[in-house]
Here is the input.
Amino acid sequence: MKQPIVTRYPHNPILRPEDMPAPCCAVYNSGVVKTPSGEYIMASRFEEPSKKQLMWVSRSRDGIHFTPDPAPVRLVCPPEDREEFENTVFNYPGSLIGSWYDPRINLVEGEYYITYCVGGDYSCRIAIAKTVDFITFRHVSFPLHILNRNAVLFPEKIGGEYWMLHRPQNTSSTGCGDIWIASSPDLKYWGNCREVAHPEHYWENKKIGPAAPPVKTDAGWLVIYHGVFPHSNGVNYAGGVMLLDLDQPWKVIGRCPDPILFVQEIYEMVGMVPDIVFPGAAIPEPDGTVKIYYGAADYVQCLATAKLDELIAACVRAE
Here is the structure.
């Protein structure tokens, strides 16, 4: 049997509802970034007891012990985009009214962008915001149509364009949820959409989607993604890893056939939604390790680590 390449932090979870400064029934699916000063900033999906979804930032000096800000993120919109913003976030039929959730923190060309979701299952839409202080998020755009989620940005332009991985909501040529890519000259107008990867392995045969923003390595763009397997009492989420070509990021050049992170612990089995590990960030460290932050059971926030070279080696080269 192969030895696991991912090790859980022994004192998981690292953030729980009772750690938050306001009534909270779940805090999870966080994006994380490490700033040049060495501070770790986590933006989490925060659920009020009413089930309204917000984004809440916590901060840490060691990447393990996080202190939540006193208040949730403030989301603002420029006047020229306010009508579309309010219609999408507050007025769209069937949406989770006034909810924004599942943030990913993307450091792109030296600036911090947040990709997140608005709306509900039947109206979910990707949104992009920008921040300088992680207190106020300023709306940038709604990149694509509804029924899209799980968006992450590449950390630099490729061929003069911004690039984004995303997942159309359970619609594809295979009938499953696939990972797609799109490009943009300005983070507002997006096109060049094409499929990157579809479910290939048994553990991910229901759908796959981007999880953490891509990490640039000499071997290619390292992408940690999530896969979903259906079983008799619901679904089971796991984390996988693949490599994309540095210059043509729509091309998969390597992919691990097995999940690198899968449900094993009680805190991953029992929560708001059972049997889920959902990665949201991968932070390379100077010692060659990678911190992998993931939500567990749609309830708490957790941490695992791996060695960067072992993650790369786990990807089987495509023929």
User: Anything to note?
Assistant: DSSP finds three helices and 23 strands in the chain. The chain has a mean pLDDT of 92. Residues 82-89 form the longest helix (8 residues).
